[in-house]
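The records we work with from here on pair a chain with its fold. These numbers are not coordinates but entries in a learned vocabulary of local backbone shapes. To see the layout at work, look at the sequence and tokens printed below.
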Amino acid sequence: MLATKAVLAKHDKIPLLVFDEVDANVGGEMGIAVGRKLAALGASHQVICITHLPQVAAQGSTHFAVVKRVHDGRTFTEVEPLDEKSRVDEIARMLGGKDLTKVTLQHAREMLERR
């Protein structure tokens, strides 16, 4: 779908592209390539991408965290914009889990700097 949208985007009058886990079953260098392709599409379209892959997320220009909470038996979804520090923390969490380490934080910073 990403390849099709990337090819058609120049001729497409639709201003918004939404991708939900377009990076399924990829990782590493391929994840970086997917992220870069999404970022390139972002030059001419608004792109919303839902991802769990840090290589893809690091390529984004604006980040939000989607959080599910249960209160009194009801489930609520919250969308929280991330500032620079929380962007690093979220990428680090995606890399290494909820317990952030110096290594995952440094790796996250480097990923965001390289984009």
Q: What stands out?
A: Helices lie at 2-8, 28-41, 54-57, 84-96, 102-114. The radius of gyration is 15 Å.
